[in-house]
Design a protein that fits this description.
The chain has 53 residues and is mainly alpha-helical. The chain is built from three helices and no strands. Helices cover 66% and strands 0% of the residues. The N and C termini lie far apart (27 Å). The model has no long low-confidence stretch (mean pLDDT 87).
């Protein structure tokens, strides 16, 4: 899998904020868009998993 710089930026924002909603606000994108991007990375990689409660 070749992760794009944008995908890496998204994953870092989610990790730093601890919340997809808060990361989406910081990135100025919609939460559903960020969720879709995160799922795409998760499906393509065994290294990145986002756990939500």
């Amino acid at each position: 899998m070749d992760m794009t710089l944008q995908q890496l930026k998204y994953m870092i924002a989610v990790a730093e904020k601890g919340s997809i909603t808060e990361a989406a606000k910081e990135l100025l994108i919609s939460q559903p868009s960020l969720t879709g991007a995160v799922k795409e990375v998760e499906n393509e990689s065994s290294y990145f998993k986002v756990y939500t409660t």
